[in-house]
Amino acid sequence: MHYRSKIFEINVPPSVLNARDLPNATALLTAAYIVFTLSLWWVKWSYPSLEANADATRAPVFSPILQLVPAQTLYDPWSLVLSNLVDVKWWKIGVDLLNLVVGGSFIERNWNSSWELVRFLLVIGSVSNLVVVLVTILSSAVFPKVRLDTPLDGNYTMLVGFCIVYKQLIPETTIFHIRNLPLVSKNFRFKLLPIFVLVVSTVTQLMFLRHFSELLSIWVTFLCSWVYLRFFQVLPPAITGAASRSLVGDASDTFQLIYFFPDIIKPFLSPIFNMCYWVFCVKLRIREPFNEDDVDTGNSLAEQRGAKVITSQVEERRRKLALQVLQERGTV
């Protein structure tokens, strides 16, 4: 499907509209998402709240099995997983369902692994939910207004996490093309999608909705998703093109956390990110630091995906490596 107007152009491949071609994991997750979301709505419609008196406001109806309720998480720990597959807002149901069908199909085919998509959506999503619950419980000890008996939105992996995957896999691919409008970028590429979603979500939560637990969930999901893709995801040789070894993480220069943010704040964020990397990777060894081969392999794979690798950094690293080799030869 192709749509074109005087100022706007968008292309939608016909294959994304064919539900019969859904890969296994995408089809299973989509079915589970529809079943659990409809089940939650059925619960909300079937069991109306009881009012204490005629003037009282109805208490919300929720399911601690399907929804993330901090006070109930210890008794219903499966809510950490199941809440990744339910939504209660109409707009989010539409966005997440479309993102799961279209984006999930693309990601599963690109990763060539049904289990990897399930792990990213459910395991990483559950870790994000656990972090949000713990922070909420700790916050309630400091801020009495923080309630532990109301459900949190535990499903932001499809909205936020998938955007990070798109930036990794198709960074320079254009989402839509705007023409004939001054002061507006003509091409909106997937590499801009994560920061766009984060900014819009943050501004909306701070200025209008003021659901700070959801804002926390958005940013925790962003960080957990990036950490997994950057440091822990295992890509088999069939995807990386390597003959004998799998690739752990994405060490490419373009996938550094600093390049998710606008240039104007990079000087302030760079020392913080460098310190975090030194503490967790170099000092604590939670993950082994990337070596030169890891970075070169990551850059090569990123270039195959269309990413524009920062040439100056690559040349500087190769210059240092060549100098190190010459020094080692001189000492032999």
TrEMBL record:
Transmembrane annotation, as ranges: 21-43, 120-144, 156-178, 190-209, 215-235
SUPFAM superfamilies named in the record: Rhomboid-like
A Pfam family this chain is assigned to: DUF1751
Membrane topology value: Multi-pass membrane protein
Keyword Coiled coil in annotation: no
Biological process terms in GO annotation: retrograde vesicle-mediated transport, Golgi to endoplasmic reticulum
UniProt keyword Secreted present: no
Keywords, sorted A to Z: Membrane, Transmembrane, Transmembrane helix
Cellular localization per UniProt: Membrane
Main location class: membrane
GO cellular component: Golgi apparatus; membrane
Protein's name in the database: KLTH0C09130p
